[in-house]
């Protein structure tokens, strides 16, 4: 989950070799963010050597991040690349992918023409260099825009059908179980009333198993800035939580992130499946509830156990509360029982 900076970066004017001599990687910026993630010159030299970049013609701009990794936009001889330094904060909890799986999945999505192409990877240094995709990065309000709903569905369908198999399976309930392990083992705080609804989420889990679809390559992170409009075609980036998964999870995650109405969910699913499938519409809506419940716990865990944070300025706890305020009405809605019933019917 990455958010591009909007303010100009002063350090873009300083040649990379001078930055190395003076302070190391991008350390003119003495902000808390810079102090948290210091890149030594050896890492930078190895990257530059691997890419055959001219140090005097290279500039870097930090991309503000949320939960995942530390990313920079690299300007090299008139070209742009995204450089990702992969963090380990949640790998041990099973919430983030091991780096080899992340690189594999990112490469598969890029080769399918959906994700950013992997230009170079240095697994031993936990670095990926990616194609910079020209286009308009979507904002949260765009997800429910009638122009984008069918295009997002088509983009997801392309990812699910064109990408070669990902290296791992990763479902929303894998993430949820990891969050619950942290809750039990670390004693983290969660939004008030959250644990009281675990039995309801378990009912959702069981209902979703009844008409499960074949697993396909999924991005698993329907955060608006992970969608890029490239001349009307949606490209999908950032595969930090990716894996083989039920495609209705992706649809449901988008729908709840975009605060879709039931009619909008119908449009999303009809475009994706190319036919009306009421059972899968119900499953999509249930997956959206499960997704938001899980993201609620994930952001709460990130607030308390994820160190060092890729973006120290990001308020993970506030994000957890926002997600819970979306999730609670869905868990207590009288319509939930209808969705549970419809999701388990024969198609």
What characteristics describe this protein?
347 residues, alpha+beta, Phosphorylase Kinase, domain 1, Aminoglycoside 3'-phosphotransferase, Chain: A, domain 2, 2 domains, 6-stranded antiparallel beta sheet, globular, disordered N terminus
Word description of this protein:
The chain has twelve helices and eleven strands. The chain has helices at 16-22, 32-36, 41-51, 99-111, 149-162, 172-186, 198-210, 247-257, 262-273, 278-305, 316-331, 335-343; strands at residues 2-3, 58-65, 70-76, 79-85, 118-122, 127-131, 136-137, 216-218, 227-230, 233-236, 243-245. A six-stranded antiparallel beta sheet has the order 1-2-3-4-6-5, sandwiched between helices. A three-stranded antiparallel beta sheet has the order 7-9-10. The chain has a two-stranded antiparallel sheet with strand order 8-11. β5 (118-122) and β6 (127-131) form a beta hairpin. α9 (262-273) packs across α10, α10 packs antiparallel against α11 and α10 (278-305) packs across α12 (335-343). It is globular, with a radius of gyration of 20 Å. The relative contact order is 0.14. Residues 1-38 have low confidence and may be disordered.
């Amino acid at each position: 989950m990455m958010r591009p900076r909007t303010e100009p970066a002063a350090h873009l004017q300083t040649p990379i070799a001078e930055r190395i001599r003076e302070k190391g990687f991008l350390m003119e910026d003495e902000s808390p963010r810079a102090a948290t993630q210091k890149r030594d010159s050896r890492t930078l030299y190895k990257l530059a050597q691997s890419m055959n970049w001219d140090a005097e013609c290279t500039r870097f701009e930090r991309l503000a991040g949320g939960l995942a990794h530390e990313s920079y936009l690299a300007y090299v001889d008139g070209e742009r690349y995204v450089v990702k330094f992969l963090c380990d904060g949640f790998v041990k909890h099973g919430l983030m992918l091991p780096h080899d799986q992340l690189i594999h999945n990112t490469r598969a999505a890029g080769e399918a023409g959906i994700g950013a192409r992997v230009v170079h990877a240095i697994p031993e240094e936990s670095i990926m260099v990616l194609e910079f995709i020209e286009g308009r990065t979507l904002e949260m309000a765009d997800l429910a825009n009638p122009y984008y709903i069918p295009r997002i569905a088509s983009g997801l369908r392309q990812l699910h059908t064109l990408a070669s198999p990902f290296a791992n399976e990763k479902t929303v309930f894998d993430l949820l179980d990891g969050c619950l392990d942290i809750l039990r083992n670390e004693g983290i705080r969660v939004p008030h009333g959250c644990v009281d609804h675990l039995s309801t989420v378990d009912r959702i889990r069981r209902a979703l198993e009844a008409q499960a679809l074949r697993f396909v390559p999924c991005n698993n992170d329907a955060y608006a800035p992970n969608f890029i409009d490239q001349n009307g075609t949606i490209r999908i980036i950032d595969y930090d939580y990716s894996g083989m998964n039920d495609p209705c999870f992706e649809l449901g995650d988008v729908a709840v992130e975009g605060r879709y109405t039931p009619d909008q969910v119908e449009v999303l699913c009809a475009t994706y499946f190319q036919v009306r499938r009421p059972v899968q519409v119900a499953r999509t809506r249930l997956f959206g509830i499960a997704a938001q419940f899980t993201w609620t716990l994930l952001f709460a865990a990130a607030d308390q156990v994820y160190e060092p944070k890729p973006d120290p300025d990001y308020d993970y706890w506030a994000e957890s509360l926002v997600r819970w305020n979306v999730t609670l009405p869905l868990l207590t809605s009288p319509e939930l029982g209808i969705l549970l019933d419809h999701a388990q019917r024969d198609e």
